[in-house]
Amino acid sequence: MVDRQSIRGRDPFSEAGNIAIVDPIGDKVYIAGMGFAIGHYARWIPHGYLRVDARSSDPLVLVTAFRDEAWKRLVLVVINNEAQPATVSVQFKGFAQELPLKFTGEQSSAQGAWAPVVPIGFADSSQIRFSLSAHSVTTVATAN
Predict the structure, then answer these.
(1) What is the pTM of this model?
(2) Which structural domains are found in the chain, ordered by start?
């Protein structure tokens, strides 16, 4: 049994690193920021995708890339730990010509979760550019 007296006055969102937060008083479960970040990987990268090399020149912008050979699909998960928005330019080396010319995706930030990103096209034959909200997780993938 939960001792509701010991829970009163505690802010469940004050603890960093939570995946989900249970509010036994309100009988609710909230997905925390870390939960949405993990969700970007779970929602977009199915079993069998291979991790490929990806690097960021900004230490507060983290990128992870995955590729599926059979479907010629690329998925990027980009985390912006900056307190301000950022513009990302992604250059493809070695397989840009094999990819579809359109990307799609979604972004989770303080403004909301799983918001669709504007369709992204190639800036030229080997790179794309898109915007990241402050403190956000953004997933972009080649559109099938």
Answers:
(1) 0.79
(2) 1-31 (no CATH), 43-142 (2.60.40.1180)
